[in-house]
Amino acid sequence: MYRRLDGRHIVETLRRLELRIGERFPGSGLSQVCADLLAAATESMARVALFQRPNVPLRVGSWALIVTIAFTVLEALVHLPVAPRWEEFAVFLQSSQAIQNVVFLGIAVLFLANVETHIRRRRTLSAIHELRSIAHIVDMHQLTKDPDQVLAEGAATASSPHRPMTRFELSRYLDYCAELLSLTSKVAALYVQDFQDPVVLEAVNDVETLTTGLSSKIWQKIMILDRPT
Predict the structure, then answer these.
(1) Are 171 and 142 in contact (CB under 8 A)?
(2) What is the pTM of this model?
(3) With bands split at pLDDT 50, 70 and 90, how would you rate the model's confidence at 100?
(4) How many Å apart are CA 164 and CA 55, to the nearest integer?
């Protein structure tokens, strides 16, 4: 049970995090971001289950071509002599229209197989792009949360952001942002748990690299807040 990500646990963790943020910062934009990530995680579970289902029309087409190849090969073999010499067999392979058809049908089978993979890859990349955008939105919410607002005194300008948080509240806010980024990468990882496509795997790794880098900036702020004054 500890060797696979369970999307249900990710969703439950996000649901509790949404409650925590809403209770600490009611009506905040960060609470809305968490709600959107929760919806994306729920949708991701449904998408992963949908993407794992075979594309029936493409599978039927592939099997129809395979059956056609088998009948074509059998028909060609029927027209061979009972005990053909190698020279006769080589000439047959070069001149037989049936063999040429087999080659083209085999290429068609490979094409249909690649089409199914391409469709799943395109849909998965679109979902991962959505998670990447959420990670950037989380970063925007912590961008102006500067530890200096509670650790140092200074006059605010007319364009300074409104900063009513206490030291403890700011620390909790930043910690919530770090949790959201971590859970974003976990939702992205669901897409490659059963789909080892190199392009999709690279996209998920990019999301993990992005969230890790953004979390590092947040934790630098938290460490500054935790320093004794």
Answers:
(1) no
(2) 0.78
(3) low
(4) 54
Distance of CA 105 to the CA centre of its chain: 34
Distance CA 62, CA 105 (A): 9
Q: Is the dihedral of CA 191, 192, 195, 200 positive or negative?
A: positive
Q: How many CA atoms lie within 13 A of 148 on its CB side?
A: 8
SS3 160: coil
Quote the pLDDT of residue 74.
65
Strand, helix or coil for residue 25: coil
Between residues 29 and 111, which one has the greater pLDDT? 29
Q: How many domains does the chain have?
A: 1
- For Cα atoms 219, 225, 179, give the angle at the middle one, nearest 5 degrees: 35
| Residue 174, domain member (yes or no) | yes
* CA pair distance 192, 199, nearest whole angstrom: 10
For 146, the domain range is: 7-153+160-226
Question: Which helix (H) or strand (E) covers residue 147, if one does?
Answer: none
For residue 169 the two structure tokens come to 């509240």
* pLDDT number for residue 31: 94
For the record, the structure tokens of 101 come out as: 């058809």
